[in-house]
Design a protein that fits this description.
It is a single chain. The chain is α/β, with parallel strands linked by helices and 503 residues long. The protein folds into two domains: 277 residues, Aldehyde Dehydrogenase, Chain A, domain 1, CATH 3.40.605; 184 residues, Aldehyde Dehydrogenase, Chain A, domain 2 (3-Layer(aba) Sandwich). Helices cover 38% and strands 24% of the residues. The strands form seven sheets. Strands 17-19-20-15-14-22-23 form a seven-stranded mixed sheet, sandwiched between helices. The chain has a six-stranded mixed sheet with strand order 11-10-9-12-13-25, with helices on both faces. Strand 9, helix 6 and strand 10 form a beta-alpha-beta unit. Helix 2 runs antiparallel to helix 4 and helix 3 packs across helix 4. The longest helix has 20 residues. Bound molecules: nicotinamide-adenine-dinucleotide.
């Protein structure tokens, strides 16, 4: 970040191991969502800036790829220590630009840290296999090699955790990285870049370019970018997938979500109500794994709605730097868009049980506030159901059977996460088998997999074949090579044009 006279400080790119203001004069505003004030500007990359970063990454890749696994892993461990020590500092940066409360921000860093720890085991994860004597004096073995330059494009809602799903694995496997974080909360990426440098990562292996569509589109088509990991809304994920694959790249593009929580009649309704409130309103609903729809299988709906509403009345909303439950939304424009769904829901005939506009707020009047909202009697045709609202708005749909609930989840175009609440093991087992969703919780409302499993949705929530982190992540950032080897001996068979047959 560089000071610019009386103007707010400028968040610069980080290219080839140093801050870089770039060549473009285009800039964006970065807000403090709790006060509504512009606290920083962020520079927006031009095509030339992206080319500069890709050039630096390409150059750094050669030496980093050739660095021994032992030396690369030492850098990973050093980075892990710095991130571990810096959790609170990074959480403060996130709260100041995203608005989420401090504990939640620290939680996202902790989940990102888990992926760094997973990547510290890269020597084991990169091990190939070896088959001795598959034919006479012939051995076959496999190698996993880095793919080159990897671009990561991340959303505003997890400025630390989502990039961490990808870059630790990419770097540990020997790749060079360009991170294009969200322009709404860009500073976490630069903080991370500095920690990499302190950890001993060579310049150019981890770069940050800031900006918008101009930067992203250049990354998608640049001939020296080999892979793209994207996380964001579904329309942009589709664009990223279609464009980058057209340019011959390996792509994983994670999109939006509409996550259902099915509550069966035998469920513990207090647990279900707690979970619906936690998963619906944590981070002000700005989570891709937030629960946005509760599917109440009758006769539980009346009691469940009452329990949820009672808990919502006790939620505190205020500046995330203090100990409140829920902070502001990320920008004024986003808050207004989310609030517009409250009118849309009423107009379409849903019952507005709790109106978030009336919730008391402890904070600057100019902050981007909206309290938690609950709709009942929602139907699948309503906009509040079909659209990803991405804010603190929870809908309840009443259904008469498990089959009806399952059909609702399975016909929804999104397939990120879902949860079932029940005390019936057989019903839960049936649900996990039949539901067409990538991540499933059983009495767990936000089933975000641990780092050594992989994170990813189905259907319109993910374009591409591999999910994030875990073994999928290792596969995404490496290419397999299989070597068939025979060392000469006196008894080789001479010329033979037939297809090699193992004997
Ligand atoms: P977004 O799609 O607006 O932006 C994501 C990234 O794409 C940002 O870096 C942005 O600068 C860039 N971008 C925006 N418009 C673009 C365009 N037209 N062309 C190229 N690049 C563009 O998403 P957001 O608002 O930052 O984040 C919220 C969305 O992300 C929600 O839909 C949420 O569900 C989704 N999300 C999904 C997951 C997941 O794992 N599936 C995780 C987190 C967030």
């Amino acid at each position: 970040m560089t000071p610019t006279g009386d103007a707010p400080p400028l968040v610069t790119h980080w290219i080839d191991g140093k801050p870089d203001e770039g060549r473009s004069s285009r800039r964006g505003d970065v807000f403090d969502p709790a006060t509504g004030r512009v606290t920083k500007h962020v520079t927006f990359a031009s095509v030339e800036d992206v080319d500069h970063a890709v050039g630096a990454a390409r150059t750094a890749f050669g030496a980093w790829r050739a660095t021994s696994l032992t030396e690369r892993t030492k850098v990973l461990f050093a980075f892990r220590e710095l991130l571990h020590r810096g959790v609170e500092e990074l959480a403060e940066i996130i709260t100041a630009e995203h608005g989420k409360v401090r504990g939640d921000a620290a939680g996202e860093v902790a989940r990102g840290l888990e992926v760094v720890e997973f990547a510290c085991g890269m020597p084991h994860l990169l091990k190939g296999s070896f088959s001795e004597g598959v034919s006479s004096r012939l051995d076959v073995y496999s190698l996993r090699q880095p793919i080159g330059v990897a671009a990561i494009v991340s959303p505003f809602n997890f400025p630390a955790m989502v990039p961490c799903w990808f870059f630790p694995i990419a770097i540990a496997a020997g790749n060079a990285v360009i991170l294009k974080p969200s322009e709404k909360d860009p500073s976490a990426a630069n903080w991370i870049a500095q920690r990499w440098q302190e950890a001993g990562l060579p310049a150019g292996v981890f770069n940050v370019v800031h900006g918008d569509k101009v930067a992203v589109d250049r990354l998608l088509e640049h001939p020296d970018v080999n892979a793209v990991s994207f996380v964001g809304s579904t329309p942009v994920a589709r664009h990223v997938y279609e464009t980058a694959t057209r340019f011959g790249k390996r792509v994983q593009a994670l999109g939006g979500a509409k996550n259902h929580m099915v509550v069966l009649p035998d469920a513990d309704l207090d647990l279900a109500a707690d979970s619906a409130v936690n998963a619906g309103f944590g981070s002000a609903g700005e989570r891709c794994m937030a629960i946005s729809v509760v599917v109440a299988v009758e006769p539980v709906a009346d009691e469940l709605v009452a329990k949820i509403a009672e808990r919502m009345s006790r939620l505190t909303v205020g500046d995330g730097r203090a100990a409140y439950d829920m902070g502001p939304l990320v920008t004024g424009a986003h808050r207004d868009k989310v609030a517009s769904y409250l009118d849309a829901g009423v107009k379409s005939g849903a019952t507005l049980v709790v109106d978030g506009r009336e919730h008391p707020v402890k904070g600057d009047a100019a902050g981007f506030w909206l309290g938690p909202t609950l709709f009942d009697d929602v139907t699948p045709q309503m906009e509040i159901y079909t659209d990803e609202i991405f804010g603190p708005v929870l809908s309840v749909i009443r259904v008469d059977s498990y089959d009806h609930a399952l059909a609702l989840v399975n016909t929804n175009p999104y397939g990120n996460g879902t949860a079932i609440f029940t005390n019936d093991g057989g019903a839960a087992r049936r649900f996990q088998n039949e539901v067409e969703i990538g991540m499933v919780g059983i009495n767990v409302p936000i089933p975000v997999p641990v780092a050594y499993y992989s994170f990813g949705g189905w259907k319109s929530s993910l374009f591409g074949d591999t999910h994030a982190h875990g073994v999928d992540g290792v596969h995404f950032f490496t290419r397999t090579k299989v070597v068939t080897s025979r060392w000469l001996d006196p008894s080789h068979g001479g010329v033979n044009l037939g297809f090699p047959r193992n004997t």
